[in-house]
Specification:
Layout (H helix, E strand, L loop, with lengths): L1 H9 L6 H37 L6 H26 L7 H17 L4 H25 L4 H20 L11 H6 L3 E2 L2 E2 H19 L1 H11 L1 H6 L4 H27 L10 H11 L11 H20 L6 H40 L1
Antiparallel strand pairs: 1-2
Helix pairs in contact: 2-13, 2-14, 3-8, 3-11, 3-12, 3-13, 4-5, 4-6, 4-11, 5-11, 8-9, 9-11, 12-13, 12-14, 13-14
Length: about 350
Amino acid sequence: MTAPTTAAAGQQPQPQPPLAAGSARGLLDRVLRMRELAILVVLAVMLVATQIDNTSFLSEQGIKDLLLNATILVLVAVGEAVVVITGNVDLSVGSVLGVTAFAAGDLLKHGGNPVLSVALAVVLGAALGAFNGVLVGVGQVPSLVVTLGTLYIIRALDSIWVGSREITASLLPSGYKTFGHDGVSAVPYLALVAAVVLIAVGYFLRDYRSGRECYALGSHAQAAALAGVPVRRRVLAAFVLCGALAGLAGALYLARFSYADAGTGNGYELTVVSAVVVGGVGFTGGSGSVHGAALGALLLTSINSVLPAIGVSSVWVEAIDGILLLLAISVDRVMALRIAGLLRSRARQARTGTNG
C-alpha cells in the first residue's frame, strides 16, 4: 500500500484545459447570443415604431420590399463573416459582385440559360475568391493588402471589359426578372435562397470540425496550426466560399434590379463589412456567427427603408451606418476586455483551489 500512496503524493496537480476551454467557449456563446438578441430587439422596436407612424409600412408589399432589399447584402455578408471569423477580411466582394452580375447578364443577353448564368457567376466568384485565398493562405500576405489590391484590379478589368455597355431589363428573360421580384406571399424567392444559404453555412460552422476550425484559426492562428489545423486550406476555403457567395449575389442582384454596368457594386464592400461587424462578428476573428451577420445586414437595409418612411432625409443613412459601426466595434472591445478579465479571474480561482 505504501508505493501507490507515495506515487500519488508525488504527482503534481495537472490543469484541465478541456474544461477551461469549454467554460470559455460557453461564456462566449452566451455573450454572442445576447448580442444577436439585442440586434433583433432593436430591429423589432424600429419596425414597430415605424409602423405606428406609417401604418402601410409593414403591409405585405412593404415586408416583401424589406426582405428584397436585405437579400443581396445578407448573401455577401454571410461569406464575408466566414472570412472575418478566420481572422481575415475580403474587401474585393463589391468588385466581385459587379463583374459577376455583368457576366451573368452578358450570357443571358446572348440567349444563355438562366441556371447556367447563375452557375457562371458563382464559379467566376469562387475563382476570384480562390485567387485571394492563395495569396493570403499560401503566400502569407495580409488579407487587407491582398483584397484591397484585387478590389482595384477587378474593378479596372471590369471597366475595360464592360466599357460603356449596360445590361438592361429589355435584354433579360422575363422569367429571370420575375424570379427577382416574385415570391410566396410576402416572402420573395430571393429571400428563400438567402435563408437556405444562411442555414447551410451556419450549420457547417457549428457542427462540422472544419467549420469549428475556422474559429480556432481566427482566435490564434499559430496555436491552431500547432493543434493540427490545416491553416492554409481553411483560409483558402473561406475565401472561395466568400467569392462564390458574392458571385451568387451578383446574379441575384441582376435578377432583382434588372441592370448592371461597370459601376455595379462600387463601394459595396464597406456596407458588407459594416453589416458583419454590426452583427457581432469580431473584426479580429474567432467570434461571431453568420446569423448575427445576417441580422446586421437586415438592420442596415431596414434603416434605409425606415428613414424615408418617417420623413427623414436619406442623407442620414450613411451617418447612422457609421455610428452603428463605431458602436459595434466599441462594444466588441469592451466585451473582449470583460471576458478576458473574467477568464483570468476564473483561472486564478482554479489555481488557488488546486493548490489548496
